[in-house]
Amino acid sequence: MGENNIAVPVICILLVFCIFFSGCTEQESVNTTKSANALRAEEQGVAAENVIDANNMFAFDIYRQIAAEQTEDENIFLSPFSISSVFAPVYEGARGDTADEIGSVFHFPENTGTLREDYREINEKINTGDPDYELSIANALWAENTYPFLESYINITKEYYSANTTTLDFKNHPEETRLTINNWAMEKTKDRIQELVPAGMIDIYTRLVVTNAIFFKGIWAKKFDENNTLEANFTTASGEIVKVPMMQKTAAYDYAETDELQAVKLPYENETGNKLSMIVILPKENELHSVEETLYFKKIREVEDSMGSETVRLSLPKFRFETDYMFSGILKKMGVVTAFSDEDADFSGMDGTGGLYIREVIHKAFVEVNEEGTEAAAATAVVVQTIAPPPGYSLPVYTFRADHPFIFLIEDDETGNILFIGRVSNPLEN
């Protein structure tokens, strides 16, 4: 694979600190429309039957929260599966209200056995790999070398979440340990994520750092021809017109359309591993806010289920950008409050006492999309396109022109697991 393939390295890090830090802020409310409230009522706090449904419900929950706090001209990109994956071993150590809040916000299955076995199976499948793309996920625990974590907790995180525990001297060498964790992040993301943990974040009170990294690099099953990429106008949410490199292709894609949006699925090449695709959701002009406000797992699944193979005249901008989030405030607003309180947090499942709480949740991500593909993908596209219609019948051609803000997902087609979710508000924003 060439260097210009789509690359999506993401790492999420959760920092669990001891009692000496200050508590959390008050929870804030967010205004929504009646339709959004109706959808929320169906999914809010609902325990999913499996980890994939749980992750997908959480994906849209946190996306909506981020979108509500950012301006519409800001890009969004994150891995909900990375965040839920890092919270699963944390949830194993939570008790009482702390566990209830985490379980509710992340929609974790009520059956602990289901939670553990699902994560173990999903992670093993992700790391199986495929000759045509790179996809990997890794978990790690970094523990203060003098702190008495329960052996049972360490064993559970290793057995079910493949999280090996490394002991570090946070008290005497906080800067060295920070660099050790950052080097791990660089290795797992092929140097895409650097300086993950900022200076000063680790100090003498640090007791545990839980990290997750997920990396994806794939090629389109139906590649774009670089010669067809043209400079075109892209209108941002604020109405500013910017010139962007717009990729062009007419081919058969899974496609659906409603009164408020268009959706198209772009598959990645695969040989033996999971089938992965990017789903691009293009709101009708001036409909971004209303689409985002009612962006729920159930709604997107209905759109996906209605997709059929159609000839699509696709225009999609090239884009590349990075994001950097501190998620403690957002997670508090979503309902994870007690875990951030130095007085009320209960992570006694980690150490047998009540002295730990979460200080911060750091999430960094990088995404790049361009024309790259493979010869085999082009051959597959030709086979699909050579199905001839009956004499005298003309197949409809649907125009999908992403020249204004759009939402995109990268998911596993076989399981429906959403690995990444984002919004392109300005393709030129880095």
Automatic annotation (TrEMBL):
<dbReference type="InterPro" id="IPR023796">
    <property type="entry name" value="Serpin_dom"/>
</dbReference>
<dbReference type="InterPro" id="IPR036186">
    <property type="entry name" value="Serpin_sf"/>
</dbReference>
<feature type="transmembrane region" description="Helical">
    <location>
        <begin position="6"/>
        <end position="24"/>
    </location>
</feature>
<dbReference type="InterPro" id="IPR000215">
    <property type="entry name" value="Serpin_fam"/>
</dbReference>
<keyword id="KW-1133">Transmembrane helix</keyword>
<comment type="similarity">
    <text>Belongs to the serpin family.</text>
</comment>
<dbReference type="InterPro" id="IPR042185">
    <property type="entry name" value="Serpin_sf_2"/>
</dbReference>
<feature type="domain" description="Serpin">
    <location>
        <begin position="60"/>
        <end position="427"/>
    </location>
</feature>
<protein>
    <submittedName>
        <fullName>Proteinase inhibitor I4 serpin</fullName>
    </submittedName>
</protein>
<dbReference type="InterPro" id="IPR042178">
    <property type="entry name" value="Serpin_sf_1"/>
</dbReference>
<keyword id="KW-0812">Transmembrane</keyword>
<dbReference type="InterPro" id="IPR023795">
    <property type="entry name" value="Serpin_CS"/>
</dbReference>
<dbReference type="GO" id="GO:0004867">
    <property type="term" value="F:serine-type endopeptidase inhibitor activity"/>
</dbReference>
<dbReference type="GO" id="GO:0005615">
    <property type="term" value="C:extracellular space"/>
</dbReference>
<dbReference type="Pfam" id="PF00079">
    <property type="entry name" value="Serpin"/>
</dbReference>
<keyword id="KW-0472">Membrane</keyword>
